[in-house]
Amino acid sequence: MLPTTSSSSSISQSSSNQFVFVSLLIFLWYSSNIGVLLLNKFLLSSYGFRFPIFLTMCHMSASGILSYISIVFLKVVPFQKIKSRSQFLRIATLSVVFCGSVVGGNISLRFLPVSFNQAIGATTPFFTALFAYMMTFKREAWITYGALVPVVTGVVIASGGEPSFQLYGFIMCISATAARAFKSVLQGILLSSEGEKLNSMNLLLYMSPMAVVFLLPTALLMEPDVLDATIALGLKHRFMWLLLSVNSTMAYAANLTNFLVTKHTSALTLQVLGNAKGAVAVVISILIFRNPVTPLGIAGYSLTVMGVIAYGEAKRRYK
Fold first, then answer.
1. What pTM, to 2 d.p., does this model score?
2. In whole angstroms, how far apart are CA 271 and each of 153, 156, 219, 220, 291?
3. First-to-final CA distance of the chain
4. pLDDT over 70 at 4, yes or no
5. Transmembrane stretches, by residue range (predicted)?
6. For residue 168, is it within any domain?
7. In total, how many domains does the chain have?
């Protein structure tokens, strides 16, 4: 009987350790995702660092360096090589689309409060379903599409009740959300064959330097005073470089923890956590930035989140 008791104790200890590990991963995932969002908002609209393209380039640079360290030295995931010229071109295409989504999101944060930004971002499933149908003719059950009605309706209501509504910021946020959905569908199409599939961490490893090559000349062209202004801010605020470094590291950590949480739980768990994350980010941003909210705006955002939850559940049941 003693070995059985010892074995049960060992299993219990292992389960406890696994629970603690997964809980820590989820905490880090929440912290990095919400942290980079709030720091982006702070830098772009409160701190005077009005260069969203250059900020995105900093994120991509950090992601490239840290991805290389994580994969090659820390062996977080096995290293996967690019096997063909066509695969390289496909990854480059994804990199450009990904850049567009991140830059658009960062630009929108200059003009919109985080709460409204998150409400618009919650419509990602709508654009994903739209692009999936347009590009692959993949149809979902009608009840699944029906769940998207409150997703869009909620954003329309939230827009009408948003005191800080700004058209350009709204357009950029919608564009970023659509680009993010387009990238996920495109990734499924371009890297669908078994020989060309890459896990998300290796994909980030290759996409990041490609993004920097694209973003550097774009930043110098569209943000010509970025270097002088950044140096001036660095001299004026001694924590400027630390903030940029922490912000860029968090951007990579958000991708890393996203991968690890999915690996150690499930994609469904990540979806549920993502729905809750949006609500948490909204509450924290309102407390920090004190942006005004209205009952109509809260009702619209709540309707959107409920629609996203219903869409996820319908999609799971009617596969």
1. 0.89
2. 21, 23, 33, 37, 27
3. 47
4. no
5. 20-39, 51-76, 88-109, 115-135, 142-159, 165-182, 203-221, 241-261, 268-289, 295-314
6. yes
7. 1
